[in-house]
Amino acid sequence: MLNIVEKISEKRILVAPLNWGLGHATRCVPIINALLAAEKELIIAADGYPLQFLKKEFSTLQTIEFKGINIKYSSSNSQILAMLFQVPKIIFAIFKEHFELKKIIQKYDIQAVISDNRFGLWNKKIKTIYITHQISVKISKRFEFLNKIAYLLHCQIIKKHSQCWIPDFEDENNLSGDLSHKYPLPKNAVFIGVLSRFFTNFAYKKNNEINYKNVAIISGVEPHRTILQEKLLKLFLNENEKSLIIEGKPAQKINIQNFNDVTIVSHLEDEELAQTLKNAEKIYCRSGYSTLMDLYALGIKSAILVSTPGQTEQEYLTEHFLKKGFKVLSQKDI
Q1: Which CATH number fits domain 2-191: 3.30.750, 3.40.50, 1.20.1250, 3.30.70?
Q2: Are 210 and 272 spatial neighbours (Cβ–Cβ below 8 Å)?
Q3: Looking at the domain 208-333, which fold is it?
Q4: Most CB atoms closer than 10 Å: which of 26, 78, 241, 253?
């Protein structure tokens, strides 16, 4: 990944992740670190928890609140109708962020943009780099015949950018499976290897103070983020085992709540989170791709994956990682 970053000649760069959970922001950490090592001038553009997270990680960098697509999920197990009703809003948001980017480029003298899954952040006048692990967008199994059409539409978006970076391996040991290996890649797409903030020389060690039977990482969009947290809290309380729930809500002040043997913490710093996960007996987490890359980086080869109901990409990844030895638990069965 560092090699491809070194090929960027532009000096002043905007980094803009999508705000659907923290994953798109966390996987930008190694890219930002590589750009800083190459002495680039960086501005971070995001909103919500991703912006708060990156502010904590890179407190000296200039940041811009740059709102993206605000998707609302249904509390049901299917998101088909919820997505269909929001198509006009999504299209409008893509055009809005595209034209907003023009203003940002002019105001801050931006020479290149690196965006993570933000469809509208392309520009004909400067270099724009689009990060995605999902060249082939997964449609509900009921409408699987539309997968090829979704792939072709996504390729049209990708082609508007100078480059497309795929955070995965090109060979058979890849993590994304069909998401980036089923169909031919656009000509401007390249695999850059797995991205994770945990590819760092942390001093991992056994620490009884951060040893838990169960550790749950709660992430993703509402209302299912809160639904999963409430279900796992009930499960852990019934099991009477020392458990930790990490809410994925970065803020200046870390909030801690205790319920008998269960601790809920709003956020953990990277090193403590890494050690907590490596020491845990059982890990519960979403099957979001960035989470799976983090587990790979930490050498964790087993976890209990709970996909967000109706989120087809996560549902596919649970099946893909089930073959790799991971366990799968349906949210409705918790």
Answers
A1: 3.40.50
A2: yes
A3: Rossmann fold (3.40.50)
A4: 26
